[in-house]
Amino acid sequence: MNAVLKRYSISLLARFQWLCFCAVAFCVASCSALNGPGVRIPTGTYLGEIVLTRTALGDTTAQGYKLQSAEVALVINTDAQTYRFSPRGDSTIILSSNGSYETTFGKITFTDRSNRTFPDPSLVMNGECTYTFDGAILVINQTDSRTKREKNMILVRQ
To answer: Could you say which DSSP state residue 57 is in?
Structure first.
């Protein structure tokens, strides 16, 4: 009886190990698919509006938040993986910047290479953002939990 029970438990262990192996293989395959190149953003100029939401105590009004908006232009060069970002008008809300970018599934990471010193670096388009692009409208969102600021852009391809 013990030999049958022992053989049965070894068989169950082998099945469990195979199941674990399959689950890990599935997760690795899924993760690599999810971290693919993402939706390609075509080369071009994108015009629209950015809304900067501030919720940090020193940045806010009596209501506990402050909203600011500005017209902006984003120029993307897909082949070189570069961008140029500039406000069109009020440059106190968001500062101009340029550099490289990289996309992965649902995320775009801007790396500012303008080699300037900014009084408030959080006002530069830099770092990881989420994005969606439907072929005409590019929506970019970035949340900075340290400064309690959120950038939301809706840009139209020109």
So the answer is: G
Number of Cβ within a 10 Å radius of residue 151: 21
Of 104, 106, 105, 43, nearest in space to 74 by CA: 43
CA distance 152 to 6: 61
Task: Please give the structure tokens belonging to residue 134.
Answer: 């439907």
CATH 2.40.160.90 fits 44-157, yes or no: yes
Residue 92 neighbours by CB under 8 Å, 6+ apart: none
Residue environment code for 2-17, b if the CB has 16+ CB neighbours within 10 A, otherwise e: eeeeeeeeeeeeeeee
pTM of the model: 0.70
The one-character DSSP state at 95 is: B
| Residue 122 in tokens | 């959080």
- Find, among 141, 138, 142, the residue nearest to 76 by Cα: 138
Residue type at position 82? T
Dump pLDDT digits (tens) for 95-108.
889 999 999 889 99
Rounded to 5 degrees, φ, ψ at 121 are -60, -20
pLDDT at 34: 41
Residue 85: which H helix or E strand, with range?
strand 82-87
